[in-house]
């Protein structure tokens, strides 16, 4: 228990190592271990980080997920879910599948940070965010499963930025998740004290 009565109690579901989120035997990310080849390795890390995001949000209600970090920041766990759905949609559908005409998710010219600004404690917003994120991840996986590993170096159009190799996009997605999961660690700890992995 924390010495400060205002700070949340640190807790975990792990029984072996209390600084872990769950015990290794219950960690859903372990089933994706030991990838073979470049494509499978990139897919493994992407799936690992997706599952970590879901774990960091597990058990929270819409109000907790929409709770902002530190003013004036609009950062919240729900905002991260919406943002990462937008990122998956943008890179996998608009860039890798070369469909730039698709409308962007959680974006408006009037509210550029709609993914975060629109992340409010409303059950409908909560349900939409999770459904959209899961649908985008599933669509991305289906595309990646069918994509030939030998074509990872193929360049695809990236708007006014020219072209980008498929491999670079996948590495960028892994980096995007990893960076935001650092935010998720701190956001979750502020909500209920839960820390670890």
Summarize the structure.
With 197 residues, this protein is mainly alpha-helical. The protein has helices at residues 38-57, 62-66, 77-96, 114-117, 123-146, 166-192; strands at residues 155-157, 163-165. The chain has a two-stranded antiparallel ribbon.
Sheet/helix structural class: mainly alpha
* Beta strands, count: 2
The largest sheet has its strands arranged as 1-2
* Shape by Cα distribution: globular
Largest sheet: 2 strands, antiparallel
Low-pLDDT ranges: 1-5
Distance between the termini: 19 Å
In percent, how helical is the residue content?
A: 40-55%
Gyration radius, in Å: 18 Å
The ordered H/E elements are HHHHHEEH
Overall residue-averaged pLDDT value:
87
| Total helical segments | 6
Beta-strand percentage range: under 5%
InterPro entries: DinB/YfiT-like, MST-like
Pfam families: MST
Protein name: DinB family protein
Task: Describe this entry's structure for a reader.
This protein is mainly alpha-helical and 197 residues long. It has helices at residues 38-57, 62-66, 77-96, 114-117, 123-146, 166-192, and strands at residues 155-157, 163-165. The chain has a domain at 66-184. 51% of the residues lie in helices and 3% in strands. A two-stranded antiparallel ribbon has the order 1-2. Strand 1 (155-157) and strand 2 (163-165) form a beta hairpin. The chain is globular. The relative contact order is 0.19. The model is unreliable at 1-5 (pLDDT under 50). Pfam families: MST.
Key traits:
single chain, about 200 residues, mainly alpha, 6 helices, globular, disordered N terminus, DinB family protein, MST-like, DinB/YfiT-like
């Amino acid at each position: 228990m924390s010495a400060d009565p205002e700070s949340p109690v640190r807790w975990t579901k792990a029984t072996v190592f209390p600084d872990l989120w769950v015990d290794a035997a219950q960690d859903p990310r372990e089933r994706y271990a030991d990838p073979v080849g470049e494509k499978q390795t990139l897919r493994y890390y992407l799936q690992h980080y997706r599952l970590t995001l879901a774990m960091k949000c597990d058990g929270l209600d819409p109000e907790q997920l929409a709770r902002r970090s530190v003013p004036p920041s609009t950062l919240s766990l729900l905002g991260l879910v919406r943002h990462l759905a937008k990122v998956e949609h943008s890179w996998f559908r608009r860039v890798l599948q070369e469909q730039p005409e698709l409308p962007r998710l959680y974006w408006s010219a009037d509210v550029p940070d709609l993914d975060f600004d629109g992340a409010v404690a409303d059950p409908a917003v909560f349900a939409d965010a999770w459904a959209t994120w899961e649908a985008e991840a599933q669509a991305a996986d289906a595309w990646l499963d069918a994509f030939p590993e030998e074509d990872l170096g193929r360049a695809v159009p990236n708007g006014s930025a020219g072209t980008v190799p498929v491999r670079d996009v996948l590495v960028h997605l892994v980096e995007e998740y990893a960076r935001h999961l650092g935010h998720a660690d701190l956001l979750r700890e502020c909500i209920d004290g839960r820390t670890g992995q």
